[in-house]
């Protein structure tokens, strides 16, 4: 399989960011005196809903509220989320988040091999900009040919729309690219877009059903942080996932049967 591009998810894949998101949500709730504070355990469950605005709205609708109170709070969601994004992006800009092991190396290897890089994320563009700049410096944004994220699509992950947007903008069919993800929602989105997918779970997503993934690794690994015998680890023959190794393992996605093809969402 010839790979022309790697398409990276952001939160959980490029960097382990969800704890910072969780803290930012709670700071925004405090700013609006809502009396809510999402614990780690609670947030792990709330992550089943992708998109910060959608997550807050889903939480409000789960509360035992009178209809008028529910409506009033739902009207507040965009304002709460803007505040949350301000808190989150300032934490990232302060250098509070590092790329996961092996990510910077794989990005460089793919570029040195003449391939293109793209992003397909549910998170807000401000957050992507802050993370790429704070972890990769001014070159961070320039490394990516395409950045598809946030509200650029109506249907967020697990819908395939954000990956289809990235592929369309790259001008590639799914068999010419590979997706890298961390979550079950991200995997569903990438597979529905026809992409062979590498999964590197985090605390927030481990234990999910990754059976549709092409490869599952605890992390990408690095020469100075090699993969050791983590439980359930695949690809035991190498100490980190290089671009060369990735290209060797990537397979065209299994052909859809007639029913699946019928239900694959047509790109918007
Ligand atoms: C993960 C998400 C995002 C973040 C919060 O995105 O679902 O909603 O949790 O970011 P990814 P926002 O696709 O990168 O894993 O508040 O900006 O949505
Ligand atoms: Mg993710």
Write up this protein.
It is a single chain. With 268 residues, the chain is of the alpha/beta class. The protein has two domains: 5-16 and 98-261, Rossmann fold; 18-93, DNA polymerase, domain 1. Helix content is 44%, strand content 9%. It has eleven helices and six strands. It has helices at residues 18-31, 40-46, 52-62, 67-93, 103-112, 125-136, 139-142, 161-170, 184-192, 243-249, 258-263, and strands at residues 5-8, 116-121, 146-149, 177-181, 196-199, 215-216. A six-stranded parallel sheet has the order 3-2-1-4-5-6. Helix 1 (18-31) crosses helix 4, helix 3 (52-62) runs antiparallel to helix 4 (67-93) and helix 4 runs parallel beside helix 6 (125-136). The longest helix is centred in the first third of the chain and has 27 residues, at 67-93. It is globular, with a radius of gyration of 19 Å. The model has no long low-confidence stretch (mean pLDDT 94). The structure holds xylulose-1,5-bisphosphate and magnesium ion. Xylulose-1,5-bisphosphate (XBP) binds next to helix 1. Xylulose-1,5-bisphosphate binds at residues 9-12, 18, 21, 50-52, 85, 121-124, 127, 157, 183, 186.
């Amino acid at each position: 399989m010839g790979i022309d591009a790697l398409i990276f998810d952001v939160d959980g894949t490029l960097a382990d960011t969800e704890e910072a998101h969780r803290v930012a949500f709670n700071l925004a709730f405090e700013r609006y005196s809502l009396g809510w504070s999402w614990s780690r355990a609670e947030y792990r469950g709330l992550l089943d809903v992708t998109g910060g605005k959608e997550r807050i709205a889903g939480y409000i609708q789960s509360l035992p509220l009178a209809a008028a109170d529910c409506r009033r709070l739902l009207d507040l969601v965009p304002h709460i989320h803007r505040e949350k994004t301000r808190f989150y992006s300032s934490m990232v800009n302060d250098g509070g988040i590092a790329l996961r092991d092996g990510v910077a190396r794989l990005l460089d290897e793919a570029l040195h091999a003449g391939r293109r890089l793209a992003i397909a994320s549910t998170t807000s563009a401000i957050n992507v900009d802050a993370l790429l700049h704070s972890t990769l410096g001014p070159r961070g944004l320039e490394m990516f040919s395409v950045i598809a994220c946030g509200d650029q699509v109506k249907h967020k992950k697990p819908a395939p729309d954000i990956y289809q947007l990235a592929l369309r903008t790259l001008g590639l069919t799914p068999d010419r690219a590979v997706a890298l993800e961390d979550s079950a929602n991200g995997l569903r989105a990438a597979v529905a877009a026809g992409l062979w997918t590498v999964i590197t779970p985090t605390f927030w997503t481990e234990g999910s059903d990754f059976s549709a993934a092409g490869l599952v690794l605890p992390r990408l690994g690095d020469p100075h942080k090699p993969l050791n015998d983590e439980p359930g680890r695949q690809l035991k023959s190498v100490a980190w996932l290089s671009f060369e190794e990735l290209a060797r393992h990537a397979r065209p996605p299994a052909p859809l049967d007639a029913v699946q093809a019928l239900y694959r969402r047509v790109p918007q």
